[in-house]
């Protein structure tokens, strides 16, 4: 090993530096164009606050939906064996590669009046397009893959030996899920939920397609920035900075060092035969 523990050639710092500039320069450009003298007024206008509050509320709701749906999907994809599993995984990940406007059109043709579910929703008296529910729907659709990927990767990196031992001790599959599998997913679940929240907060294309841009109803902060860029560029830049700060906070939280500590703690808890037997007995006795 080279001095200082470095195992890579020094010339790699050249593309690293170019990549860092590629990311940092646009962010710096935003900061340098902020009207600091009127920054507070720009981000606290009625329209700006309404858009920010709506973004936070809908992103929180979509994150809950992603957790409720994503956890079972990740477990089944990582631990299950069924026909068409690879196809199912590919379908789950499709929203990651679809253009946002295509995602919005797909949702519109699903819940719109002429969509697949349109007649049923109309009979129930539910109108989804161009409502806050449509915003949550769009955000959930594009954010769900993030939590599935995070959890599936964590499940594949962990062995299922402790699950099998718990079953051998007489625990039911539901008890194993509640007492062993889900607690072991804690760090990955938090990371995935934070990333899903961030993706929901920045969603634009699918939202404007299926939900439109109605102030206080469907106009989230990205939509507000887009509209302000045509009428009030200073406000658009100020609100963009707000989103950048939020994104930095989210990335920081998702990558906190506690994840490694939590992983080590879980390894200590479930590592080795003694730890696994303890977890198995606890699941059986619960």
UniProtKB/TrEMBL annotation:
Belongs to the binding-protein-dependent transport system permease family. CysTW subfamily. This is Molybdenum transport system permease. The chain crosses the membrane at residues 12-31, 51-78, 90-112, 132-155, 176-198, 235-254. Pfam families: BPD_transp_1. It comes from the Bacteria. InterPro entries: MetI-like (IPR000515), MetI-like_sf (IPR035906), ModB_ABC (IPR011867), NifC_ABC_porter (IPR006469), Sulph_transpt2 (IPR005667). PANTHER family: SULFATE TRANSPORT SYSTEM PERMEASE PROTEIN (PTHR30406), SULFATE TRANSPORT SYSTEM PERMEASE PROTEIN CYST (PTHR30406:SF8). Residues 52-254 form the ABC transmembrane type-1 domain.
